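U., I forgot to send this yesterday:
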Amino acid sequence: MKRSMPVKSLLGLGLLFGIYSQTLRAATPVIEIEIRDHLFYPSVVEVPANTKVKLLIRNLDPTPEEFESYPLNREKVISGNSKVIIFIGPVAPGEYPFFGEFYPGTAQGIILVK
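Result:
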């Protein structure tokens, strides 16, 4: 009997931790960006300051593109007709440019952190 008490306590703590971690995942803002005709839509994305953000980037073009941001230290190739998830933050308020490495003349954008 003495052993069942700690097991129940551990199970209770595990349940609470599971609920807490699901709440944290649900609280992460998701920002959707599309790539069409070698352009980012929207080209200006506003995100909250000091918050981890999930970027869901869909490449609707048949050719690959690369999401690149030097200030955010992110670089990810996105195959044609596919999607990727990139996490950023938490970051301080400011403007963080990003571009498409394969079409840098047209595929440009800014993440505006407020």
